[in-house]
Design brief:
With about 325 residues, the protein is of the alpha/beta class. The chain has helices at about 1-5, 25-35, 45-60, 100, 125-130, 145-155, 170-185, 200-210, 240-250, 265-270, 285-290, 290-295, 305-320, and strands at about 10-15, 40-45, 70-75, 85-90, 110, 115, 135-140, 160-165, 185-190, 220-225, 255-260, 280. Helices cover about 40% and strands about 20% of the residues. α2 (about 25-35) runs parallel beside α3, α2 (about 25-35) crosses α13 (about 305-320) and α6 (about 145-155) runs parallel beside α7.
């Protein structure tokens, strides 16, 4: 089903967050965006999160249509920001609240003399680090061995698995990729950006990893600036388009997905620049615009509240898909 969806070049992927382990929020997001027209969902590689996504689909979509919706889990090589969590050094924290005010995930917890991080909600975006005036915040990578993570998840019936490979460790990336291939025979997604690699290196990595794979059994997720699209400016999405253009010009037998810094402007700009992506993945921005409503405890039980959020979410999905295909 995922291959057919991508071939239509009308795929909207809702990124719940590779590091977002808040199953309650994930259920709400999936229920909302599935109703709004999203067909593909990117999830943290946790069994409870995948089950929450399925619960969201069950709430929103009739049984006979659920096969149309696809689930992906994301894993990352050590050091990739998508599998990192923030940590606050209490002795350096002045309790100023700057980190809490800037965190869109509401992952910063006030604690009297010092703040702390709710790791379940933290997605490793680094906004709190940039905001902290005393450099009290750092990130630590939390990469769990794939032999522990993947087997129970594969049994749940995934449509794809994604490797976040923001790293210059070629041997490590290759090892992780081959390990995933050995455990999953479906579509694989490779998330790459140019923060550590030059253009030639990026293409060399892609060619090496897809060698021997069936044509169009791989998604290349062209990342711009990961987890940065929430400001909805045109310039924020330029890096994603630049990375996608490099991949498109190489004419590789892969699906192309726009991601990283993506927002409501991405699909329109891709069309303007002649980038023929198979899909667009939105995370930070898509979550931000419904955040206030999603956080309500009665979100799924309050039809009026759900409808308010649905109007906003559907506008984003429709606007993105309008410029694709």
């Amino acid at each position: 089903m995922l291959g057919k969806l991508l071939n239509k070049r009308k795929c909207f992927k809702l990124v719940c967050g590779a590091g977002n382990e808040d199953a309650v929020e994930v259920e709400k997001l999936v229920a909302l965006y599935a109703t709004a027209g999203a067909r593909y969902f990117d999830l943290s590689a946790r069994e409870d999160v995948v089950l929450a996504a399925r619960a969201g689909l069950e709430r929103a979509i009739p049984r006979e249509r659920r096969a149309e919706f696809c689930l992906n889990v994301s894993v990352g090589i050590k050091g990739d920001p998508h599998v990192s969590k923030a940590a606050i050094e209490a002795s350096l924290c002045t309790d100023c609240g700057a980190c809490r005010d800037t965190c869109l995930q509401r992952a910063i917890v006030a604690g009297g003399e010092a703040h702390s991080v709710n790791a379940t909600r933290c997605i490793g975006c680094g906004a709190c680090i940039a905001a902290c005036p005393t450099q009290a915040i750092s990130t630590c990578s939390r990469s769990t061995p794939l032999e522990e993570v993947l087997p129970p998840l594969v049994k749940l019936g995934l449509d794809s698995i994604e490797l976040h490979a923001v790293s210059d460790d070629e041997a490590g990336v290759t090892e992780q990729w081959r390990s995933i291939e050995a455990k999953f025979d479906g579509i694989l997604s490779l998330c790459v950006d140019r923060s550590r690699l030059g253009d030639a290196q990026l293409l060399a990595r892609i060619r090496s990893l897809i060698a021997g794979r069936k044509e169009f059994s791989t998604i290349i997720q062209a990342d711009g600036a990961p987890m940065s699209g929430c400001d909805d400016r045109h310039q924020t999405t330029l890096q994603a388009l630049a990375t996608a253009q490099i991949v498109q010009r190489a004419e590789l037998p892969v699906f192309l997905m726009l991601s990283g810094g993506t927002n409501s402007k991405t699909a329109e700009m891709a069309k303007l620049f002649g980038i023929e992506a198979h899909g667009v993945a939105l995370g930070s921005y898509a979550r931000k615009i419904v955040r206030d409503r999603i956080e309500r405890d009665d979100f799924l039980a309050n039809p009026a509240l759900f409808q308010e959020a649905l109007v906003v979410a559907r506008d984003l999905v429709d606007r993105s898909l309008r410029y694709m295909g």
